Amino acid sequence: MEKTDLIYSEEMFKKAPQKLRDAETIRRPSIKYWPDVWRRLKQDKLAMVGLGLLIIMGIMSIVGPHISGFKYYEQDYSNINVKPNREYWFGTDELGRDLFARAWLGTRYSLIIGILAALIDLGIGVIYGGIAGMGSQRVDAIMMRIAEIIYSIPYMLVVILLTVVFSTAGSGTSMFVLILAMTITDWVPMANLVRGQVLQLRESEYSLAAESLGATNSWILRKHIIPNTMGPILVNVTLTIPRAIFAEATLGFLSLGLQAPKPSLGTLANDGIAGMPVGNFYQILVPSILISLIMFSFNVLGDGLRDAMDPRLRK
Amino acid sequence: MVEPLISVRNIKKYFNVGRGKLKAVDGISFDIYPGETFGLVGESGCGKSTVGRTIIRLYEPTDGKVFFSGENIYELSRSEMQEIRRNFQMIFQDPYASLNPRMTVEEIVGEPMEIHHVYKGHKKRNERVIELLKLVGLNEEHALRFPHEFSGGQRQRIGIARALALNPKFIVCDEPISALDVSIQAQVVNLLKSLQKELGLTYLFIAHDLSMVRYISDRVGVMYLGHMMEVASSEELYDNPLHPYTKALLSAIPIPDPEIQRNRHRIILEGDVPSPIDPKETCRFVDRCPYATARCREVVPKLRKVGEGHFVACLNI
Amino acid sequence: MEKLLEIKDLKVSFQTFFGEVEAVRGISLHVNKGETVALVGESGCGKSVTASSIMQLLPMPPAFYKGGEILFNGEDIVKKSEKEMQSIRGSEISMIFQDPMTSLNPTMKVGKQIVEGLVKHGKLSFREAEEKAIEMLDLVSVPQSEKRVRQYPHEFSGGMRQRVMIALAMVSNPQLLIADEPTTALDVTVQAQILDLMKSIQEKFGTSIILITHDLGVVADISDRIIVMYAGQLLEEGLVDEVFKEPRHPYTKKLLGSVPRLDMDRMEVLHSIHGTPPDLYIPPKGCPFFDRCDKAMVICKEHMPEREYHTDSHYSCCWLNHSMAKKVAEGSEV
To answer: Among candidates C251, C226, C264, which has minimal Cα distance to B210?
Structure first.
């Protein structure tokens, strides 16, 4: 066994010193969980488009109402129903108010309501689902039965009841009531998801290991189970937000939305309908397009996140 | 006479499954003495893992008593049990699943100390974590990494470090090497042996690899379908197996030596292991036993002494 | 002895986001007709990848053939198309896997699965197919075969399912059977049954078997030759008697020394190999066993040793075989 191009010396056959031999070091770079998810998400072009759109819309919702030069509530009767032009970038509505400012303010309120509602769903859902999942079979069964009953209440009914009970005379409801109405039944799917995850992860070996170390149920839930469910929960949140925004838009569309003159995308759409018979399509197009863009963006972002976190799709 | 550290008396663990009662453990009794390794062997479904978990009350027992230093731990309250738990720890089979993938090694090994509030601050706890890592052959730079970055053998060592954190007296090793490569198995077993010597530990070593169990255990118990079939010292069991099941089991294990293996006579057991759901009250081995008699179908044989430290549950011995 | 399968300098890698992982780094081996060759190694050494490469079952990306040939009856199957492979798989080369639960279709009756291939290729009528399925179940000693042929996999125990797998693999009487850890998931008494079955099938049909395993006992039981693989390369090969009695490579020696044996003295120490196999993302330049070998020399780190034949059939790849090594060792003893 001679390697033709190798010259052998005695030195080469001496024993190799200990420090040259290194059996325990890990050579690969450390992969942390969230940076890896982000890296995989970046590969999904569509999700990135969605993310980009959301960032743009978010920025616009903050600065938009201020840059047009008009206040959202300023009425100008000499300029009613003006089609989009140099002065009024999105045109004006039937009271002469600048639609550009109103649209972006409406986006701001819609986003806030949608995100807040989704976060409240998250909070209630995680706590409720966590307790149900960790509890005994009886506790679980009772809690889930209650949740089912709550969820089966038609939510429109609840909204109307609440708005009737809480609203001031005239048009619309306060933000607080709106959010309350939307979340009162909407937390159930999140609770279900969390409960399912908890039930599953409860049987995992590391949960069992923690139990053998003397950990209490709440410790296991907090330290072991919830961190490992963040993935599916996050995906659910990104998909709940568009649902909440659309729900708010629907309410606004049905005149159950925010008090005038505060605009939301839904109320703007409602207002915009009046413009259709006279050919002022821009009045309904603007809010509709914005709603669609928001929903689209959150949906593709949520889908992208789900794929990025799926261990089977790892590239 | 040395007092046993753990005395298991007639423990039973039944599970309710849709179509009946799964009698995973159906009346097991044995003692484990301080400083020894008691090996518990059997094939899949025999209940050995369940025994391990029931002894430390990870599963609530259906019946029986377990005495730890004279105290029946099944009668303790939840908070009393919490205290006692510091003395029993467990090492799990699957090194890939028994470590939380989102926690760093430091957090994993430090968890038991955190749960029991052993150290006041992070710093002291982390010092202890590093001490434990060194004890199992890892080092400081591994502390901030995540489980998935390690090999199976290294993960199992992390599991061992975690089990040692509270200075327990007794460790249940539930198939700790089954999921590891052959050369790594020896590594882990040698580590367990040296730790036992150094720290004075007592082990219940549950496994299905009889060759390995023979190597590490002082005494061995053979289980079949929820019952204990034979108990003897390691030497005695392998040199002089008495129960028909033990004999068949030993003859089935291949020896890594072609010449010897060629000339060995194998006792081939027909059929598969029957179901542990609602078993009949007979000797559990009766359907596959080459020596079964009519009596074996009427009575459940009890473990009785047939020699010094050697017990067999068979009517025909 | 006729060569049924010959692998020449096979290199298979995986493209991951880290970079390239070299799973198989230039291996050459052969399998003769009617013999059982055991490919032994620990997890990650590349033995399963090798087996899957023979069947072209690797997902291509991320896997890719970096080089080498796999000659089956003289033809290079690396070059064959998927369609051509489909006619080879199951009929000329078959494979059985470790976990019969996942390799059998849980929604299809067992009998149907066994003869599926034959029926699809139009070789059998429906009636003939059922008879054939029963015949196969009898061959693998599944009792009550007429009844069992209509049952579903979940109605069988682990050992029985593995027998079904063997029936499935043998139905077209393949020339080569690749068994990837066939008994690892089975209880030891069931394992004994399956090993006996495999032996009897080989005697009956003259099938060549490649047995992939890490269990040296299983190797000693049914293999004729043993090949030791480590980190994508072959370190030693020979007849089982040769290698078990006189292992030449330090890894083989350590491996044999780390396995507890029923017939060894209980007080004998089990030698473990410290450390873990190298990560093939940054494959070692020289001998892959360098980091864990206590006989390691300076040259071992930089250069991979070549084969040195001790007998016609027994070789090992180790610098200790080199005359220089002996010279230096003697020199230092003085």
So the answer is: C264
In angstroms, rounded to a whole number, what is the distance separating the alpha carbons of residues B205 and B182?
17
Percent of chain A with pLDDT over 70: 90
What is the nearest CA distance from A16 to chain C, expressed in angstroms?
4
Each residue of B248-292: pLDDT tens digit? Answer: 989 888 888 898 888 887 887 776 777 788 888 888 888 888 888
Asked whether the beta carbons of residue A30 and residue B138 sit closer than 8 angstroms, the reply is no
Kindly report whether the peptide bond that precedes residue B279 is cis, defined as omega within 30 degrees of 0.
no
Helices in chain B by DSSP H: which ranges?
Answer: 48-55, 78-84, 105-115, 122-135, 152-164, 182-199, 210-216, 234-239, 244-252, 258-262
Question: What number of helices (H) and strands (E) belong to chain A?
Answer: 12, 0
Asked if A20's CB is within 8 angstroms of C322's CB, the reply is no
The whole-angstrom distance between A31's CA and the closest CA on chain B is: 8
Q: Looking at the complex, does the CB of residue C193 fall below 8 Å from at least one CB of chain B?
A: yes
Q: List pLDDT tens digits, range B190-242.
A: 999 999 999 999 999 999 888 899 999 999 999 999 999 999 999 899 889 99
Question: Exposed, middle or buried by CB within 10 Å (0-12, 13-18, 19+), for C1?
Answer: exposed
Average pLDDT, chain C: 87
| Nearest Cβ partner for B92 among A30, A33, A209 | A209
Q: Do residues B210 and B249 touch, judged by C-beta distance below 8 A? A: yes
Specify the length of chain C in residues.
Answer: 334
Span between the terminal Cα atoms of chain B, in Å:
28
Classify strands C75-76 and C63-72 as parallel, antiparallel or unpaired: antiparallel
Both structure tokens of B23:
């009698």
DSSP string, B165-187: TT--SEEEEESTTTTS-HHHHHH
